[in-house]
Amino acid sequence: MLGRKLPTIFTTHLAKFLFWVGVLISIVAVLRQTDLSEQIWIAPVIAYLAILLGAFLAWLLIKGQAFLKNSQPQPSTQASLILASMLGNTGYLGFPITLVMVGKEYFAWALFDDLLGSVFGAYGLGVLLATRFGNTIQNHGHMAKAILINPALWSFGYGLLFRQVAIPNMVEIGLKKLAWCAIALSLILIGMRLSRLNSWYKLKPAGISFFIKMLLVPIILGSTLSLFGVTGEAAQVKVLQIAMPPAFATLIIAETFDLDHDLGVTALAMGSMVLLVTLPLWLWLF
């Protein structure tokens, strides 16, 4: 309702507030109560495996189609399909789902997955892919700057230091409340953005990316997590993060490099709705 009634500028301002303030508060607040075991550093490694596996499977399907039908999508469509198959919404959507479904004790797994895995996967490998297939030439320095000034990364480092600082109980409680408010606002923001999506004519290629990103990759990596020594609730967090729908970063990259924006929009909307079905599936299986 808010997405349809309020002006677009409101969504823009809310996104900026969450990017520069909300996410920072959430990360700092939750890190104070999170268990940071040695094994947690395997989280970004598995995130990179999921990103690379999704990209490889999408590339394999594109080449298979070219071989069987003697045709293949436009380069810009190929890039958008691969991006939607490899990049998940592990932050704005993955964080609240992890906190509610598994608990704050394992939140660091989701945090390391997103900040040290998905962020660099999107603005590193994703940008390289976009420059290879895209129709525009961009200044890579701007993309590097976008990573370096990301407040989530800085708040992650600050949160690790702030864990050692003793603060009054009332301040601690207030920090928690602010963190949950920011998380709630991030979910509202996703809903507002989805309410404005109106491109549905690329359901078939979007369905391919959904099949890879939200079914194939989670079942392959989820069934092998024990080989990495990741079991129990930690494994549950990893599977939930791997199985998130396509990230909004896919649209940002598509717009920046003139890729197939309509495919990105359709994949994002479809994945966000299908999550209602796949989420209980993964919780049941793992």
Number of H/I helices:
13
Mean pLDDT: 83
Secondary-structure element order, N to C: HHHHHHHHHHHHH
Looking at the structure, the CATH topology is: Na+/H+ antiporter like fold
Report the sheet with the most strands, covering strand number, pairing sense and barrel closure: none
- Shape designation: globular
**Which structural category do the helix and sheet elements fall into?**
mainly alpha
For the record, the count of structural domains works out to 1
The helicity comes to over 70%
Per CATH, the architecture is Up-down Bundle
* Poorly predicted runs of 5 or more residues: none
Number of strands: 0
Query: How much of the polypeptide forms β-strand, as a percent range?
Result: under 5%
Rounded Rg: 19 Å
End-to-end distance, in Å? 35 Å
The CATH class designation is Mainly Alpha
Description:
With 286 residues, this protein is mainly α. Helix content is 75%, strand content 0%. The protein contains 13 helices and no strands. It has helices spanning 2-5, 8-31, 42-69, 75-86, 94-101, 107-133, 140-148, 151-162, 169-194, 203-222, 232-242, 249-256, 261-285. The longest helix has 28 residues, at 42-69. The relative contact order is 0.19.
